[in-house]
């Protein structure tokens, strides 16, 4: 892998057919991110749950100044899928002609004289620090639904905050073949550390910290998709088509007047504004409220809201049966802790309420493999020293 920091390009007045085809064909790109922490190991991630009609429908997390990598593994249509990267002349820094498959026929490689340096295969990547937002639907949906949601929400956010299409990037995570989350991050220069910056953190942080902002973006996305959106709570059955602004024929799956764009050309075969699941989720988001979660494990700050009951009651029951934890009272701090872990999609402990020292002390939660003991209050010095000795 080779980090690309400086490149030289040639300006052109307009893109050619080859450039358009290259964008449509696409590269095999992989995006990775790391949420950074301060000197004390604390992250400034803001998490929120999105609920509609007292039912959680999605979780969102905002991370300022996250490190993002974009890795180019090669052409999507390359002949050898296990071979990554491109050929480059290490002496001149010029890219060499590679095995690019067009119409199913490889072009082959340029022959190099014996006295010249042979090209080297590298996997180029870029690295930057960006503010990012991760949206995770709580229900599993199809690839078409996730692709449509990605395009629709990106357009809705752009329209609500009046930012350019090139200023916001949206990608499926962990990959285009396994879409489970949606990653949004700023793609514009500047505004990296300024929370009031339009198109930067000032946009993404509002979606997680202000209750109705995500609903505004979803409602605007439905309008952009040529639907008449009534006021108040809506359902997909209430949506009706409205003609495009230019008075031409109605949009079918999607068009460049709604959610299709030059930037999402590789997604065009998947995007479908008529997808029932996508419309259902967008309508739920349009009628939703975003509840910011407090990242504190003390029992006084744990969520104890009625709208979490249907999901976490079943989880707590099965967990108590399998791990031996007793969850009997709604005011039990162990129940609050399990619900809090579930709500944040954190790893569940191996044991809840684990007795130690002949039942004289209690470990509130225990992770065996990680060798982590969790306490809701500061443990006695004797117990603390014992656990430290045990690693």
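Q: What amino acid sequence fits the structure above?
A:
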């Amino acid at each position: 892998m080779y980090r690309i920091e400086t490149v030289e390009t040639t300006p052109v007045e307009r893109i050619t057919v080859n450039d358009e085809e290259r964008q449509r064909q696409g590269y095999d790109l992989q995006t990775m991110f790391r949420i950074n922490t301060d000197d004390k190991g604390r992250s400034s991630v803001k998490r929120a749950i999105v609920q509609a009609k007292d039912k959680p429908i999605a979780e969102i997390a905002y991370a300022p100044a996250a490190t993002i990598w974009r890795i180019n593994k090669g052409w999507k249509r390359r002949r050898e899928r296990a071979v990554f990267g491109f050929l480059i002349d290490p002496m001149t820094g010029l890219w060499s002609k590679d095995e690019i498959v067009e119409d199913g026929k490889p072009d082959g490689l340029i022959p190099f004289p014996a006295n010249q340096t042979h090209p080297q295969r590298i996997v180029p990547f870029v690295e930057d620090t960006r503010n990012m937002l991760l949206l995770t639907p709580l229900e599993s949906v199809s690839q078409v639904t996730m692709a449509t949601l990605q395009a629709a929400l990106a357009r809705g956010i752009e329209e609500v905050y009046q930012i350019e299409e090139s200023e916001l990037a949206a990608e499926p995570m962990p990959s285009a073949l396994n879409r489970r989350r949606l990653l949004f991050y700023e793609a514009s220069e500047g505004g990296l550390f300024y929370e009031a910056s339009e198109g930067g953190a000032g946009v993404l942080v509002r979606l997680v910290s202000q209750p109705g902002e995500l609903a505004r973006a979803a409602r605007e996305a439905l309008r952009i998709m040529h639907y008449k959106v009534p006021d108040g709570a809506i359902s997909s059955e209430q949506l009706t088509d409205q003609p495009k602004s230019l008075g031409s024929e109605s949009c079918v799956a999607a068009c460049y007047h709604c959610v299709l764009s030059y930037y999402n050309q590789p997604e065009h075969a998947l995007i479908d504004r008529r997808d029932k699941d996508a419309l259902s989720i967008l309508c739920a988001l349009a009628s939703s409220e975003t509840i910011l979660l407090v990242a504190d494990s003390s029992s006084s700050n744990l969520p104890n809201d009625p709208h979490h009951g249907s999901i976490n009651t079943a989880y707590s029951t099965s967990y108590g049966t399998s791990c031996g934890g007793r969850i009997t009272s709604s005011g039990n701090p162990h129940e609050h802790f399990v619900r809090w872990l579930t709500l944040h999609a954190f790893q569940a402990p191996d044991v809840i309420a684990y007795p130690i020292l002949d039942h004289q002390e209690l470990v509130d939660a225990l992770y065996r493999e990680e060798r982590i003991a969790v306490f809701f209050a500061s443990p006695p010095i004797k117990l603390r020293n014992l656990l430290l000795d045990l690693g």
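Q: And what stands out in the fold?
A: Residues 100-110, 189-199, 295-330 have pLDDT under 50 and may be disordered.
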